[in-house]
Structures are given as C-alpha cells and as structure tokens.
Specification:
By secondary structure, the chain is of the alpha/beta class. It folds into two domains: 2-169, Hexapeptide repeat proteins (UDP N-Acetylglucosamine Acyltransferase, domain 1); 173-254, no CATH class. It is built from seven helices and 15 strands. It has helices at residues 2-15, 22-28, 30-46, 50-64, 171-184, 197-232, 250-254; strands at 67-68, 73-74, 79-80, 87-88, 93-94, 99-100, 105-107, 120-121, 126-127, 132-134, 138-139, 144-145, 150-151, 160-162, 167-169. The strands form three sheets. The chain has a six-stranded mixed sheet with strand order 3-6-9-12-14-15. Helix 3 (30-46) packs antiparallel against helix 4. The radius of gyration is 25 Å and the shape is elongated. The termini are far apart.
C-alpha cells in the first residue's frame, strides 16, 4: 500500500511543475485524495458492500469535487490534475500513467444495466480540461484528447482527438505537417493549439501545399520521362501518369462545413 502511495506521489511530482514537495502533494492535491478514497470505495464495492462503497464515493465527491463511481477500475500512476468537476462512470477503466484534467467526463450513452457503458483508457492517455469521452469504446495507448472535445468513437493509439464532435488526427499526419511547415519557415504549433479551428484550417492549407508540391514533382518526373522516350523513339512509359490528385473539399471538411 505504501509503495503504491509513493508511486502516486512521485508521478505527480514528475508531471506537475507546480508541485514542490511530497508534503505539499499529500496535503494539497485533491486528485490524490480522490484516488485514495476511490481505492477504499472500490474495495467495498468488490466485497459486495455496495451502499458503503457509494457512501465512500459520495464523501470523496464532497471532499474533493471529483466524482468516481466505486465500480470504476483505475490503474497505478494516474494523475487527476486540479480535478474539480471530474466525473468517472461505473464501467470506466483507466490505464496506467493516464493524466486527467479538470472538468473531464468519462460518461456513458447507454441505459442498459450491466453493459459496458463507459470508456476504457489505455496507458499514458491524456484527457484535456473539459473534455467529454462518452461511450463504451477504447482510447488507445499514448492517445490525447484536446480540451473541451466531445469524443463518441474510438481513438487509435498515439492519435489526437479534437473538436466537437471530435476529429481524430493521426500522429503520423501531425509529424508530416510539422515537417512541411518547417520547410515553409514557421511552426504549425508555435502559436495555436490543436483544438483551435484556425489551427485546423492552417493544417488543411499545409496539407494542400504539401500535396501540390508533390504533384509538381510528379509532373516534372513525367515530363522528363516523356522527353527521354521521344528522343530514344520508345513508347511512352505507363508509369509516367500522375498517381495522386488533390481533394478540393478537404479543407472544407476540416472546418466542418
């Protein structure tokens, strides 16, 4: 038990630059208090003492402002930062190393008793402030959910979900955009955040510029092949044709119109 407590304290010190000492974490961090009380409530719940589990959960809610159903399963090294207004449902599962900010809801969309109604978070998932993750699906390992996003479908491992309703941005797409933006002389993430609509539009423009640049390169390759073929009197090679095309409605889809 004490090893687990030390692990909880250390994960807060590692992830919160405002934490100055172990004593401060133990006495002043409601996220830690909520997790400690949840473990007691979850033990009661597993022993069939359902009312006592719910009462412990209710006391924790009154003390910390964080509501965790005693049936929820929470792994080690989970950090609930600030925590006010966090709601975690009965069938929710939270993997090791997750970080959850204030105002987050891990809620359900079904009224069926006994069903898996709440989300499952993989390892090292980050849920931004005010985000709502609703449904019995999985958010993959190392995924992120942007602030105030409303997620109603699975999020792949390593991806980011932003917006209302949430759009999934693959990690590879983000890295590619950043590389193209650096070539153009600015950082795609230097000013705006992932969940800013203007940032999303800018990413769409970067994608368009990247696609056009690639098309131009293909055109030059095709022209060179045609020139060589005509000089040598050979037939035009079949692979001289373009293999990509620009989707004109891509930017419109990003801004949700």
């Amino acid at each position: 038990m004490f090893n687990r407590l030390r692990s909880d304290i250390q994960c807060i010190l590692d992830r919160d630059p405002a934490a100055r000492s172990k004593w401060e974490v133990v006495t002043c961090y409601p996220g830690l208090h909520a997790l400690l009380l949840h473990r007691l409530a979850h033990w009661f719940w597993g022993q069939g003492l359902r009312w006592l589990g719910r009462f412990t959960s209710q006391f924790s809610r009154w003390l910390t402002g964080i509501e965790i159903h005693p049936g929820a399963k929470i792994a080690d090294k989970v950090f609930i930062d600030h925590g006010m207004g966090v709601v975690i449902g009965e069938t929710a599962e939270i993997g090791e190393g997750c970080t959850i900010y204030q105002g987050v809801t891990l809620g359900g969309t079904s009224l069926t008793k006994g069903a898996k109604r709440h989300p499952t978070l993989g390892r090292n998932v980050v849920i931004g402030a005010g985000a709502k993750v609703l449904g019995g699906f999985t958010v993959g390992d190392d995924a992120s959910v942007g602030s105030n996003a409303v997620v109603t479908k699975p999020v792949p491992a390593g991806a980011t979900a932003v917006g209302i309703p949430a759009r999934v941005i693959q990690a590879d797409d983000s890295k590619r955009r950043e590389q193209v933006a650096n070539k153009m002389g600015f950082s795609a993430y230097g000013i705006t955040e992932n969940d800013d609509p203007l940032s999303q539009a800018m990413k769409g423009l970067i994608d368009s510029a990247s696609s056009q640049e690639h098309q131009i390169a293909l055109l030059w390759q095709a022209i060179e092949k045609l020139s060589v073929a005509r000089k040598e009197g050979d037939c035009v090679p079949d692979d001289a044709a373009l293999k990509e095309h620009f989707e004109a409605d891509k930017l419109t889809q990003l801004v949700g119109k």
